[in-house]
Amino acid sequence: TELIKIAKEITTGLKYLHDKKIIHRDLHSKNILINDGIAMIADFGISKLLDETSSSSSNVAGIAAYIEPQCIIQCEQKVKRDKKSDIYSLGVLFWELTSGVPPFYGLSKFATWDKIRDYKREKTIAYTPTNYMNLYQKCWSSNPNQRPKLEWILSEL
């Protein structure tokens, strides 16, 4: 389907970035462009080169609904954002592909942070294929170590 095609293209783009040791840090629907029917990742304004030895600054940079819980819960501390942070955002984006609206639509940034801090997630949209639902739920796991690698995500799509 078209949804899976878009999900694959976004995942392939994110894998390319990660292979180049770049973390996007702001992956959400407004940063996905469709050109000639192909989905592409845009806006690298807060992207960073992945440096395995440094902690990240600006944990809550980006759109609230796409930021992993660790960055919101520990916003006063420097939490290392890495590839798994982008995978969390990818899972949220996959959910949005089924819903057609951003997560926690209509809530303020702070109300959204409260939901994420409490590990709340949007409900599954009716008729979402079970395999796809399981995939995005693994991506947006609250535990970064349980989030899948992009190669596995691509194989599942």
TrEMBL record:
GO CC, alphabetical: cytoplasm
Keywords: Kinase, Transferase
Organism whose genome encodes this protein: Gigaspora rosea
An annotated Gene Ontology molecular function: protein kinase activity
A biological process from GO: signal transduction
Protein known as: Kinase-like domain-containing protein
Presence of the UniProt keyword Kinase in the record: yes
Protein kinase domain residues: 1-157
